[in-house]
Design brief:
5-stranded antiparallel beta sheet; globular; 9-stranded mixed beta sheet; alpha+beta
Length: 784
């Protein structure tokens, strides 16, 4: 009887604890709303449409609270053993205050890094996290005001809950709330994303940062989203699965020499190679047509004298993978291959192959080489000389926690190169750091003043993005000028006339607003050399995975070097076609723990959503079940092979022979099947042009395949917001040659349609049946 009474009393106390939390939840919700308002103010400055997205953000906050409400309820059960109501409320307030501080910190991280923090936090060591925080953390004044206000709201409402007039719940209500929350966690999606969420900036704003961090971390514990995608992918259509299950990427070398015809013929000594990996360099602020204006005047000049790849992709959204991607064309493993440290699988790379044939290897950085295991990777490749922050002596001054500024780096590299008297050809790598938060460097104030001067030279009016990020644009101008100094003085170095320079970005810096997710990977590639016959602007898509295979093919075909007969390259070679096309399949890994992006021909798969890819790396939402299935199957095949590669001791058998270029046949950039391989036509750039007369809808149709397209008819369909078709119009049937595009204008009849919001879909259709025979663009908003 006594035990029964005690259990009854304990049950009542536990029920009361649940009720206390349930009755107090409005305090947390209102406090959270204050932080959401601060996010809205910040996001509106970046062009995020608050009128349509604020409600979505608040809805995601509410759904996150519903999904994780059981955590709050269960965590409060110890309150059952505290008799004082005031003490229970104080403890509850302390716990929720810490939660609000966590949310504010995650919001601040998102504002600084450009992406929300997820499980990638656990992919870095404590010292690396310390360097990152020290090198880039700066509290926002907006958050410094919003967080105390949020805490004040929390405590004020908590105090109100102790009043007699506050609504009360029963213990049964608390148990029911717990059950509903558990069901919501099991059944509801991670977030609510209606069609009005169009850009990465929109997505970053509407998600709840704490819930995202929790979901991402739980996903890592369950094996990660990449593992889940790999397990769920279809078993067919696996371009990366080699015949030997032990070596999933192993295949015969078939990289064509696309660079050779662009260089002067000669049987002289193999050329020197100089790579410049520019921290954060993105196409949106560098080169012709840069969306934010080009702040790299010197690199623009250099591009006009060399090979300039306008539609070029980095393989990663952070620095962790750039060395393995550029020099090894390697898979990523779980968190980047270099993260495996001493367990990194044995592999061939541009560095090891050239080292075996007499090249000296040199690396220059002003930073700590142990970050992201870069030093370990370079030592494993046999690099002869590594200059890092520890080698900068008197006369050099650290600019921030990341190390030494780019001008100091350039001067150090030039000094060492002048001292190098070896006769053998060399491969040198310079990796910059100044275009990284906190964007501090010597003489910063003077460079800040040059930002409006550069805008004036471009003939552009200053925008809020330029003023709000003046330090960033100043750092871009500073680094560009440091590179000017390097190239001006490199002309006097021995061997300059027989040197090939390769300049690219490790990724696009995320601190500047991005229009699309793929913009994170969109970087320039410049190949400059006195050996070039003529400059060339190249619109064909390639990636950093293609650099090492192409350079080895060039050296083997033109200078007698050898390359491995069997390779594990992810790339198939640089495409130097001036017109826009994509012959590659390219996996993209945004952070160490997130890999959900994939490009195949004219298709871009981003976090499960299908897009079409067009010149300028512009993307449009697409709706094609067949193309989506093909892209997911290919991506799944890569993920399976990538997961295996990260666990094996070697990517290829030991003792693989080197072979001369002429010993291989069937060399082609098309070593994997693409989603757009079968003559399918992709649609991009759908733009409604309303006016005083008839509505005009422009769209670009492109044949990305190597064969002529089937005959198709441009089809425009108009629907209302509920998906009901209101009309359609068909253009004249046509066929496109390989790689060719056609801009089509269609004129729908809108005479009977009232004012409102409608949606356009444009697709290549069969002339007889009207069925789609390519990849269309769907749900383009039209306001009448």
């Amino acid at each position: 009887m006594v035990i029964k009474e005690r259990l009854h009393k304990l049950g009542g106390a536990l029920g009361a604890a649940l009720v206390t939390v349930l009755e107090s939840l409005p305090a947390l919700m209102l406090a959270w709303l204050v932080l959401r308002a601060a996010e809205g103010i910040h996001a509106s400055g970046a062009g995020v449409p608050q009128s349509t997205l604020l409600g979505v953000g608040v809805g995601n906050d509410a759904m996150s609270l519903l999904r994780y409400g059981f955590v709050f309820l269960l965590a409060a059960l110890p309150l059952a053993f505290i008799r004082s109501q005031r003490a229970r409320m104080v403890l509850l307030g302390v716990g929720w205050s810490l939660l609000l501080c966590l949310q504010a910190g995650l919001v601040q991280y998102h504002w600084v890094a450009g992406v929300p923090l997820g499980a990638d936090l656990f992919a870095y060591s404590g010292s690396e996290i310390g360097t990152t925080v020290a090198g880039g953390w700066a509290a926002s004044p907006l958050l410094l005001a919003a967080l105390p206000l949020s805490l004040a709201v929390l405590w004020a409402v908590l105090a109100a809950t102790t009043r007699e007039w506050w609504p009360r719940f029963s213990a049964r209500s608390g148990a029911l709330a717990l059950a509903i929350s558990l069901a919501a966690f099991a059944l509801l999606p991670d977030r609510f994303l209606p069609r009005v969420v169009r850009t990465d900036a929109d997505l970053g704003f509407v998600i709840n940062k704490t819930a995202y961090f929790a979901d991402s971390s739980l996903g890592l514990l369950r094996g990660g989203p990449a593992t889940a995608q790999a397990q769920a992918a279809a078993q067919g259509d696996a371009p990366w699965e080699g015949k030997d299950p032990r070596y999933p990427f192993l295949r015969a070398e078939r990289t064509p020499d696309t660079l050779g015809p662009l260089f002067k013929a000669g049987a002289g000594a193999p050329p020197n190679l100089v790579f410049i990996i520019v921290e954060g360099l993105g196409r949106s602020f560098s080169g012709p047509g840069a969306r934010l204006g080009s702040f790299t005047p010197f690199l623009d000049e250099l591009a006009q004298q060399g090979l300039y790849f306008e539609n070029f992709l980095a393989g990663q959204g952070r620095t962790f993978g750039v060395l393995t991607t550029v020099f090894g064309s390697l898979p990523f493993g779980e968190q980047g291959l270099a993260a495996l440290g001493e367990r990194m699988p044995r592999h061939d790379s541009l560095l090891t192959v050239l080292k075996a044939q007499g090249y000296r290897l040199k690396f220059y950085s002003g930073s700590n080489m142990e970050f992201d295991n870069e030093g370990l990777f370079l030592r494993a490749q046999g690099v002869d000389s590594i200059v890092s922050e520890k080698d900068f002596g008197p006369g050099y001054r650290r600019s921030n926690d990341w190390g030494y500024a780019d001008r100091d780096l350039v001067e150090m590299a030039l000094a060492r190169e002048r001292e190098d008297t070896h006769a053998n050809p060399a491969l040198s790598i310079i990796q910059t750091t100044s275009m990284h938060s906190p964007f501090t460097f010597p003489g910063q104030d003077a460079w800040r003043r040059r930002v409006p001067e550069r805008l004036a030279a471009l003939g552009r009016a200053p925008q809020p993005v330029h003023e709000d990020n003046r330090d960033i644009f100043a750092s871009i101008l500073y680094t560009d000028d440091a590179l000017r100094l390097f190239f001006e003085q490199a002309r006097s170095l021995p061997g300059y006339g027989n040197t090939i320079f390769v300049v690219t970005g490790d990724h696009r810096l995320p601190e500047l607003p991005m229009d699309t997710r793929i913009e994170r990977y969109h970087v320039p590639l410049i190949v400059y050399s006195p050996l070039l016959k003529a400059p060339r602007a190249i619109k064909a898509v390639s990636s950093q995975f293609d650099i090492a295979p192409s350079l080895l093919a060039y050296l083997a075909n033109n200078h007698g070097l050898k390359s491995p007969a069997r390779v594990t390259w992810l790339g198939t070679g640089l495409d130097v076609e001036p017109a826009f096309r994509n012959l590659h399949a390219i996996p993209l890994k945004q952070t160490k723990t997130e890999m959900s992006d994939f490009v195949s021909g004219s298709v871009y798969l981003a976090q499960g959503q299908l897009h079409t890819l067009a010149d300028g790396m512009s993307v449009d939402r697409a709706q094609d079940a067949g193309a989506l299935a093909k892209a997911q199957a290919q991506f799944g095949a890569f993920l399976r092979a990538n997961a295996q590669a990260g666990k094996t001791a070697a990517l290829s058998p030991p003792g693989a022979p080197l072979a001369a270029y002429g010993e291989a046949s069937g060399r082609t950039l098309r070593s994997v099947p693409l989603v757009s391989e079968a003559g399918e036509v992709g649609v991009s750039g759908v733009r409604p042009r309303p006016g005083t007369g008839k509505l005009s809808v422009e769209a670009t149709f492109t044949n990305h395949a190597a064969i002529r397209s089937r005959e198709f008819a441009p089809l425009l369909v108009i629907t209302n917001e509920h998906g009901l078709e209101l009309g359609e119009v068909t253009g004249e049937a046509m066929s496109l040659a390989p790689g060719k595009s056609a801009r089509v204008t269609l004129h729908p009849d809108l005479g009977k349609i009232p004012s409102g919001t409608y949606y356009l879909s444009v697709l290549p259709s069969h002339p007889d049946t009207g069925r789609s025979i390519g990849v269309g663009q769907y749900h383009v908003e039209l306001k009448l």
